[in-house]
């Protein structure tokens, strides 16, 4: 059983003829020495353990610092990547809008050109139709004209003359 400081303080030695009992004092001192050596050993072990834990703490603190720096660098990199992606997205959108405007403008120009061509074709069709109608009317007039009958009559006469 280990002694406490109170045990040492309250220890009373019995007196012999010449004072304290020397064997009892020596025995008590031996017990104090053993306990004190045990305390010193424990203190040394605890100091070694404290030193070991301090080293681990320094190591982990170093790792924590490195990790914090890495996290900061990663966050900065992520922000930079995000900014670059935003810039690139804006450029892509701007280019797409430009292309869309160009395509719309080209389509409008083609549409106008086609509309003009259609109008021109309608005019040409109308002119052709009118000319064709005039041609047919002229041909019909020629067919309805009395000249045919005269031509027929003159041919009939020639045939008769040749036949006689």
Write up what this structure looks like.
A two-stranded antiparallel ribbon has the order 1-2. The chain has helices at residues 5-10, 22-144, 147-163; strands at 15-16, 19-20. It has one domain. The chain is built from three helices and two strands, in the order H-E-E-H-H. With 164 residues, it is mainly α. The radius of gyration is 63 Å and the shape is rod-shaped. The N and C termini lie far apart (177 Å).
Looking at this protein, list some descriptive labels.
two-stranded antiparallel ribbon; mainly alpha; rod-shaped; 3 helices; 164 residues
Oligomeric state of the chains present here: single chain
Sheet with the most strands: spatial strand order: 1-2
Helical segment count: 3
The fraction of residues assigned to DSSP E strands is under 5%
How much is the average pLDDT? Answer: 88
Order of H and E elements = HEEHH
Structural class: mainly alpha
Overall spatial form:
rod-shaped
**Which spans have pLDDT < 50 for at least 5 consecutive residues?**
none
**Alpha-carbon Rg, integer:** 63 Å
* Largest sheet properties: 2 strands, antiparallel
Supply the number of structural domains: 1
Distance between the termini: 177 Å
């Amino acid at each position: 059983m280990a002694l406490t400081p109170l045990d040492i303080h309250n220890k009373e030695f019995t007196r012999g003829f010449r004072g304290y009992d020397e064997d009892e004092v020596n025995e008590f001192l031996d017990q104090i020495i053993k306990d004190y050596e045990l305390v010193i050993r424990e203190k040394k072990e605890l100091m070694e353990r404290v030193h070991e834990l301090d080293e681990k703490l320094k190591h982990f603190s170093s790792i924590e610092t490195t990790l914090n720096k890495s996290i900061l660098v990663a966050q900065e990199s992520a922000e930079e990547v995000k900014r670059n992606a935003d810039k690139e997205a804006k450029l892509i959108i701007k280019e797409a809008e430009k292309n869309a405007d160009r395509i719309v403008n080209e389509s409008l120009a083609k549409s106008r050109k086609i509309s003009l061509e259609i109008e021109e074709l309608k005019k040409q069709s109308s002119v052709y139709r009118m000319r064709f109608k005039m041609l047919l009317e002229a041909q019909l007039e020629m067919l309805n004209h009395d000249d045919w009958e005269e031509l027929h009559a003159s041919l009939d006469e020639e045939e008769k003359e040749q036949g006689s």
